[in-house]
């Protein structure tokens, strides 16, 4: 037997505790609660390992009640065994220096008792006790997995990640708030949620989500993040708050990673969708702001890097397009703060991506006056530009020009009173003007015509088919932050302006495309791409394969609608 498990190790305990522990091994265990409580005091925690001989014997698997928890009440002896086992588990969960030679043996005993308690508490509907038991088990796993050989053993234990998720819930639910005792609990939980091993197999992730569902887990992550931000506001809790926040952000990044690329798991995809429906972008932006303004410690740089990385990944989620425009001004401030600080040069690639791709792609939605807020942010942070690297300075300058152009157009668009611009949806008509000039199709309530004659012509030129498709597409459109009427009108006005400026180029490209295709009658389509801010226009022949054509065809109903609307 390892020396740390021998009864002689009890000699290192304070005399009063030693006598009580020796008595508990061979006789009554009524003082076990006092023993553990005494050793959990700050001045005694370093000596907790000397309780291991007692805890080891109290967790003997032969003491686990053999009665079926579904139909029987525990005998007095069994009740005493379970009572003392809970305190033994508390002792193990707080022993940070268990030797590697006995770690596997200790873990097997912890897990066997956990399985008993889990079944026992569920049958008796003692959810609070069940959550506390999950916390004990995860805390024990946290210290035991510091031994390299224990990591795969613990993480491969069937059902372990289900325990992790319930302990994570308990970090808020048991204590009511991270301000209380959740902080020491969250550290062990974070060991397992902020770890890519969580998504290494589908089974682990399924165990983690369990009966809670992906939406509940996503909401839980946001709740932890919000509580972390509240902690950061308190100077005395700030360090704990940043620790909470960093691990939640890492968890969100891992889930995003699992929803894309080679992983592409269904559960993470559903979690990301749930995050998109809530204020995850605002939470991450606030996290970066808090780290920039209120952190000076070692956690500052990691939280900024991780939050920026998560933001970058979230921006690739198409369901967030309308939310993006509302945080553009905040992102400008973040770019300025990070760009001028020498210690954050690692962020520059991400910052350039924001300025060249993500924030410009939001500008097409600035009909809601977001443009003026962005311009104000540019003016406020203009003094930081000389401190930027040359490449970041160029990206800032180009974005500045785009933002001012869009903001000016938005103001002009609003000041003329033409708030909702429309074009006649008869493809053979060029009428464009205020919405009051047009009447809506009563069938799909989506298309507008300047006259009954135009509607009749368009009905025979494809709208007979497209009308039903418009209804389907409208109902199938994501309900998360759809563009407002004002934003849609602004987009249409931008498109009309750009078309008028580029009309000669489009006609020239159309003739060239028809010539190259070898089939002038095949038809063509024009793509206006606003994903980088300014319009990038390409003309494609329907007779030739192209990435844009393939992409459109993969959009199923939307391409059917385009084909039908093209008429004859």
Give a short overview:
The protein has helices at residues 15-26, 32-39, 52-58, 76-93, 100-123, 127-144, 150-155, 160-173, 178-193, 202-209, 214-233, 238-258, 266-277, 280-294, 300-314, 321-339, 348-362, 370-380, 390-415, 452-476, 485-517, 547-553, 557-565; strands at residues 421-423, 432-434, 439-440, 448-449, 524-529, 536-541.
Ordered list of secondary-structure elements with their pairings:
Elements: H1 15-26, H2 32-39, H3 52-58, H4 76-93, H5 100-123, H6 127-144, H7 150-155, H8 160-173, H9 178-193, H10 202-209, H11 214-233, H12 238-258, H13 266-277, H14 280-294, H15 300-314, H16 321-339, H17 348-362, H18 370-380, H19 390-415, E1 421-423, E2 432-434, E3 439-440, E4 448-449, H20 452-476, H21 485-517, E5 524-529, E6 536-541, H22 547-553, H23 557-565
Protein name: MYND-type domain-containing protein
GO molecular function, one term: zinc ion binding
Keywords: Metal-binding, Zinc, Zinc-finger
Textual characterization of the structure:
Among the domains are: 1-157, no CATH class; 421-565, no CATH class. It contains 23 helices and 6 strands. The protein has helices at residues 15-26, 32-39, 52-58, 76-93, 100-123, 127-144, 150-155, 160-173, 178-193, 202-209, 214-233, 238-258, 266-277, 280-294, 300-314, 321-339, 348-362, 370-380, 390-415, 452-476, 485-517, 547-553, 557-565, and strands at 421-423, 432-434, 439-440, 448-449, 524-529, 536-541. A hairpin with a 7-residue loop joins β3 (439-440) and β4 (448-449).
